[in-house]
Design a protein that fits this description.
Helix content is 38%, strand content 21%. The protein is built from 13 helices and 17 strands. It has a five-stranded mixed sheet with strand order 6-5-4-7-10. Strands 13-12-11-16-17 form a five-stranded mixed sheet, with helices on both faces. It has a three-stranded antiparallel sheet with strand order 1-3-2. Helix 10 packs across helix 11. The longest helix has 25 residues. It comes from Gryllotalpicola daejeonensis. Belongs to the ROK (NagC/XylR) family. This is ROK family transcriptional regulator.
Length: 424
């Protein structure tokens, strides 16, 4: 399966120009790699110079290094007017690799990507909520080494591991603080602990942000401003504005669980959005209402939250009245939450994904646009698109791996600063 990482419109290249300064060679290399990545049929050195704004000599020097390092390859020639044919450069897919890990309170997913974004392996580990963080990290490390070994990947070609976890995070230290659905993970320095275990560089990212990164990598030219609605064990938003992923001051942007949705509980307290729509709250509400989602034997035998949530949606689609009320209220609350996000950020697209989205997708995408458009609080001058994620596999795990690739391939002026904090 290919993630179509090169399918990005030409105009996005306009702002990615290099600088002919000796001190920014790494940035220039990223500029050239990014241009080659976005030209899957190949691109000549002359075209690279024109597209990146770099001198012909800089392009030649960088291209030589990339060829020697096995990151790009020569892919034939093309005749363009008079003069000798131009040699095309292409990304070499097996030149580098990255692993992505997604730690969800219900499950751990691990993927292996090559430099072109090809999904080479995808594995899932069950998570026991009672397990310590150290034990789970041991399991992740064992499976990560196995997935690399099974792919026959040379260690020297591994760029690193990206791990996506629920927030909040301490970005500087790579620490998971106190994720509400992972009580065993309070103040765990995930980045360093996993790096020690797998002996590779590790990047830590919030799961909703990683999902937005994955979507941006596979996106076509219509996704410059969008919110990724991540529907997992909990819920959150990943944000992309003007083609840039928004992380916030501490890397914790996108936490919407505390939004008030207008409902009140028995004590008269406004119900937070997370309590209204998260599967961890919706499934107990359904069980309390007497909706049968699993037999006791199934539940004792490991009938997981995802299975119960799926059963609830199926019951609603089958016409079970109480199930329909609960599921449709989730969709209505979801629509209400999108309105202030659209008003505040002026996004023109909502993309939905995450491990719990698939069961809800058909019913939700049928009802969401109408409920959103009918909101009296909507202030908008353009249409808003609602669609599923283009990433077929676990989007947060794919995004975690893409973060590692993105750091190697995508130029950012911030890399020109000596204090830039990412060191993969």
């Amino acid at each position: 399966m290919r993630a179509n990482l090169g399918n990005v419109e030409e105009v996005r290249m306009a702002s990615r120009v290099g600088a002919n300064l000796p001190a920014v060679g790494g940035f220039n290399q990223a500029v050239i790699l990014d241009a080659i990545r976005r030209a899957p049929e190949g691109i000549s050195r002359v075209e690279l110079a024109a597209r990146t704004g770099l001198s012909a000599q800089t392009v030649t020097n960088v291209s030589r290094r990339l060829l020697a390092g096995g990151v790009v390859r020569e892919a034939g020639t093309v005749v363009a007017g008079v003069g000798k044919p131009r040699t095309l450069l292409q990304l070499c897919p097996d030149g580098r690799f990255a692993v992505g890990v997604h730690l969800d309170p219900s499950v751990v997913s691990i993927v292996l990507l090559d430099l072109a974004g090809e999904l080479l392996d995808h594995r899932v580990l069950d998570v026991d909520p009672a397990s310590t963080a150290q034990h789970t990290l041991d399991e992740i490390a064992i499976e990560t080494r196995a997935i690399i070994g099974a792919g026959r990947v040379l260690c020297e070609r591994m760029l690193g591991v990206g791990i996506a976890t629920p927030g909040p995070l301490l970005e500087e230290s790579g620490t998971v603080l106190n994720p509400p659905l992972l009580p065993q993970w309070e103040r765990i320095p995930v980045r360093d602990l996993l790096s020690d275990r797998v002996e590779l560089p590790v990047l830590l990212e919030k799961d909703v942000t990683a999902a937005a990164v994955a979507e941006q990598w596979v996106a076509d030219g219509n996704r410059e401003n969008f919110a990724f609605v991540y529907y997992g064990t909990g819920i959150g938003f990943g944000l992309v504005l003007q083609n840039e992923v928004i992380r916030g001051a501490s890397g914790n942007a996108g936490d919407i669980g505390g939004f008030a949705v207008g409902h009140t509980d028995a004590s008269g307290r406004s119900r937070p959005f997370g309590e209204s729509v998260s599967p961890t709250a919706v499934v107990p509400r359904a069980l309390a209402a007497g909706i049968r989602l699993a037999t006791p034997a199934q539940r004792t035998g490991g009938f997981h939250l995802l299975d119960e949530f799926t059963a609830l949606v199926h019951a609603a689609e089958s016409g079970e009245p109480q199930a329909s009320v609960i599921v449709d209220q989730v969709i209505a609350d979801l629509a209400n939450s999108l309105v202030p996000v659209a008003n505040l950020l002026d996004v023109d697209r909502f993309v939905f994904g995450g491990p719990f989205w698939a069961p809800l997708a058909g019913r939700a995408l049928e009802r969401l646009p109408r409920a959103f458009a009918q909101s009296p609080y909507l202030v908008g001058a353009h249409d808003v698109v609602f669609e599923e994620s283009a990433v077929a596999a676990d989007v947060a795990a794919i995004g975690a791996a893409c973060l590692v690739l993105d750091h190697a391939l995508s130029p950012r002026p911030a890399r020109m600063l000596l204090a830039h904090r990412v060191t993969v």
